[in-house]
Amino acid sequence: AQSVTQLGSHVSVSEGALVLLRCNYSSSVPPYLFWYVQYPNQGLQLLLKYTSAATLVKGINGFEAEFKKSETSFHLTKPSAHMSDAAEYFCAVSDDRGSTLGRLYFGRGTQLTVWP
Amino acid sequence: SQTIHQWPATLVQPVGSPLSLECTVEGTSNPNLYWYRQAAGRGLQLLFYSVGIGQISSEVPQNLSASRPQDRQFILSSKKLLLSDSGFYLCAWSLQGASGAFFGQGTRLTVV
Prior knowledge:
Largest sheet of chain B: 7 strands, mixed
Oligomer: heterodimer
Number of strands of chain A: 11
Distance between the termini of chain A: 41 Å
Number of helices of chain A: 0
Helix content of chain B: under 10%
Structural class of chain B: mainly beta
Shape of chain A: globular
């Protein structure tokens, strides 16, 4: 079975500071990994994805994530936080096996607060 | 390009009333379709997924059901709502594992 653990349900940073949101996964096959962002009362928007190409993945809004197989991690970073980054972030894992084709397994989410 | 439509955006329903939420996808064929529920502080819970017309898999036994009458239409229903059915419901579609899933704007359901 696949699973995702997001360390820290709440993260607070000052504007301009580094953003680091942690995600660890468990998968018995090579995974596909994703980060999504959710603004209040909206659906989830795909930020970036890892699909076995480059281990450092760049996404929208200046975010990037690095796939580390040895650590089973896929942490999300942004060098300089902006007020507009305040939102909830979800890490997810997927694969292409059988009847669960494309099914995503989500972490519980991390609420990012950005202080002025 | 592909789009996903989900409605209504908000809904207030009394306990014991029926429910029907609809989701349609445009611009793709034979997508995998999903219904998720998001309750405050509890992350995303997969309720149902479908890999084809009439094929529904339920992840969690509960008061809800899903149907897929057409290739790109996914409906979430209940015969009698409970207070615990309140939450934010999200429809999503995908084609394969590497593509990820794409979400609708959600329905905020409040059962009173």
